[in-house]
Amino acid sequence: MKRKKRVVKIGGIKIGGKNQVVVQSMTKTKTHNIKATVQQIKRLEKAGCEIVRVAVVDKKDSAVLNRLRKAVKVPLVADIHFDYRLAIQAIDAGIDKIRINPGNIGESWKIAQIIEKAKDSGIPIRVGVNSGSLPKKILNKYKHPTPEAIVETVNDSLAIFEKKRFENLVVSAKGADVMTTIAVYKRLYRLFDYPLHLGITEAGLPFRGGLRSAVGLGILLAQSIGDTIRVSLTADPVMEVVAAYEILDSLGLRQHNPVLISCPTCGRCDIKLDRIVNEVERRLKRYNNYMKVAVMGCVVNGPGEAKEADFGIACGKRTGLIFAKGEEVKRVREDLLVSELFEVIDENIDN
Ligand code: SF4
Question: Which CATH superfamily is domain 259-348 in?
Fold first, then answer.
């Protein structure tokens, strides 16, 4: 029988067990540029990001971690490769978690030092394995970074930690493509009870990357696999957070910020719906409450959909109906639809 999932604490945030799926992202600034990094983290916090990872590339980066830790509230993770001393410095600076790939840290005594330090400070470690950096002996055995090869690498990495009785761990392992990543996580879920950090690597620009992440993460999350997610995009990291919440909302796992739904339009639409939708989306950015807002193009499906949402517009010919909480509230002219919709929203919510 599968054991109960462990819970790991990163600052004030719990992941694993029955806790909700946590949204995280990573800064794209040079970490030692403290002004730019703090600014980006604050924007991420405002967007609802619950854990932020920063790259710690060298001593210049590790030297600012303490100031960074004091400047923001959100739990911070130091992402470290190659140099075990950076991990030690990050822990000394008060970081909330570190992420390492044991495969590139080197000799086992170096990993042992990180483990001892993390143990003393009570912080968790994420063991992250990537298909691009599997050990030679594994690649010789499997020839390619197959799901089996990746899972065996994770298993070998975890054995080092378990030998030292360190179990304050989060695990991630990514394949080169979506299907490999899905196969890997399904195995990890069956084999281990550590919280799983999900992500699709090198996902791409927002449209393609968002879709690839939605497919990969969606399939896993729908099977209750995954405790924290990062949507990787070649874009402003705030978009990663927005995309993550869209994925979680569509699976019914988290409700965060307003959700705008709109119809694709068709030959029945007699109104410039794209203009209305864009304006509604722009104005919704000011709201932090969860609410569903539907903007529909005609009277066929419009009233039904608009009634199901918290607020809605069902357009007709140069006019539209406004709905609130399932009730038709008023009929207004096309040019007044958006302003009247927001008047109704403001009357009905505590913002
Ligand atoms: Fe077409 Fe009306 Fe459906 Fe929009 S709501 S897609 S305009 S039928």
Answer: Sulfite Reductase Hemoprotein, domain 1 (3.30.413.10)
To test ligand 1's pocket by mutation, which of 277, 300, 305 has the most ligand atoms within 8 angstroms of CB? Answer: 300
pLDDT per position as a tens digit, 7-26: 999 999 999 999 999 999 99
- 7-250 belongs to which homologous superfamily? Dihydropteroate synthase-like (3.20.20.20)
Residue 262 CA, ligand 1 centroid: distance in Å: 9
Which candidate, 6, 31, 29, places its Cα nearest to that of 16?
A: 6
Pocket test for ligand 1, best of 263, 299, 307 (most atoms within 8 A of CB): 263
DSSP 51-105: EEEEEE-SHHHHHHHHHHHHH--S-EEEEE-S-HHHHHHHHHTT-SEEEE-HHHH
* 75, 266 Cβ separation under 8 angstroms: no
DSSP secondary structure code for residue 19 in this structure: P
- Mean of the per-residue pLDDT values for the chain? 94
Measuring CA to CA, which residue among 225, 152, 213 is closest to residue 186? 225
Substitution site in 261, 269, 307 for ligand 1 pocket (most atoms within 8 Å of beta carbon): 269
Please answer whether residues 306 and 345 qualify as being in contact, where contact means their C-beta atoms are separated by less than 8 angstroms: no
pLDDT at 350 over 80: no
Beta strands at 22-26 and 7-10: parallel, antiparallel or unpaired = unpaired
Predicted confidence band of residue 351 (pLDDT cuts 50, 70, 90): low
- Ligand 1 pocket, residues with Cβ under 6 angstroms: 263-266, 268-269, 296-298, 300-302
